[in-house]
Amino acid sequence: MPQASRPGCAAPMTAELTGGVRLSPKAEADLEDIWRFGAAKWSPARADQYLDGLLAVFDLLLVMPGIARERTEFTPPVRIHPAGSHLVIYRTDTDHLHILRVLGGRQDWQRLLEAIE
């Protein structure tokens, strides 16, 4: 059975990555900031739930890395997938999902992406 893919996607939507998730130091800091904000605004339990939701999106992206189109306007190209009120910015290689940033949808994420190594 052929794998699903979309025009403009280099990777098939269902080409599972077996190497797991790798977080950049900035992505780790983003997740810590997201949790701290949620814990202060709502509660630690609610912050835990939101973070669990973000981690579930990472799992989805491992199974379907091509679900988001490649954004070639950035150098190097990235993929951007919504997760709650945040955007997961990632890249893939042959077997890993590299989470570069997890940014708020209201942040100036285009400017922040210009600073990605």
UniProtKB/TrEMBL annotation:
InterPro entries: RelE/ParE_toxin, RelE/ParE_toxin_dom_sf, TA_system_RelE-like_toxin. The keyword Transcription does not apply. Keywords: Plasmid, Toxin-antitoxin system. Coiled coil: none annotated. It holds the Pfam family ParE_toxin. The keyword Protein transport does not apply. Belongs to the RelE toxin family. This is Toxin of toxin-antitoxin system. It comes from Paracoccus yeei.
